[in-house]
Amino acid sequence: LYNLFGTILIEKKNFNQALVNYRKSLKINPNYAEGYNNLGIALYKLEKVNESIDSYQRAIKIKPNFSKAHNNLGLAYKELEKFTESINNYQKAIKINPKYAEAYNNLGVTFKQLGELNESINSYQQAIKINPEYAEAYNNLGNVYNSKKKIDDAILNYKKAIKLNSNFTEACSNLGNLLKEIGEIDEAQKYESKLLSLNPNDI
After folding, report:
1. Would you tell me which of 39, 103, 179, 195 could form a disulfide with 188, CB atoms 3.0–4.6 Å apart?
2. Entry pTM
């Protein structure tokens, strides 16, 4: 019950109270892997990254094939710029669950951060192959193509991201900026106007 309350509080972004509930849950059942994973999420959201790593590791110790905990551990290591450990955990998550689109997307983010752009592209493409409606992966793929100066591919992927999620402000911003850079001013203004309608406080 406490674990359920914690999850509801996470959704409401009440991370401190979620933490209290997850700890109560684990006091009752100290061998509950999902509880440690959820505790790790709350700690991560509160920027207590080292503590979140401890929680994810405890979850994995109890349940070694816990793909979500490996993925979350990868996110935490990336936050600390421990990229080798981050990649290893994403890959473990994927080995356990080969259809884990989010882990492929996260792997792509880390590879891009390391400048390994072809590996990053492959990871995003795998994420999209698993989940063809994964707007975030299309946007991220657009970013890599933009870095590689493959402008047409970047534009195509940003547009796919926006088609899948019409409220995707980051993709609108990325596309608008890119179009402006290549001199497509009228087209760029269309996405800038859309961006302002989504974020009126930015006017």
Report:
1. 179
2. 0.89
∠ CA 23-28-32, rounded to 5°: 75
Provide the H-helix boundaries in the chain. 2-11, 15-28, 33-45, 49-62, 67-79, 83-96, 101-113, 117-130, 135-147, 151-164, 169-181, 185-198
Q: What is the token pair recorded at 124?
A: 């995003």
- The one-letter amino acid code at 127 reads A
Output the CA–CA distances (angstroms, integers) from residue 13 to 16, 17, 33, 51, 104, in the order listed: 9, 9, 22, 19, 25
Per the listing, tokens 């269309």 go with 190
Burial class (CB in 10 A: 0-12, 13-18, 19+), 200: exposed
What b-and-e string marks burial along 8-42, b requiring 16 or more CB atoms within 10 Å of the CB?
Answer: ebbeeebbeebbebbeebbeeeeebbbbbbbbbbb
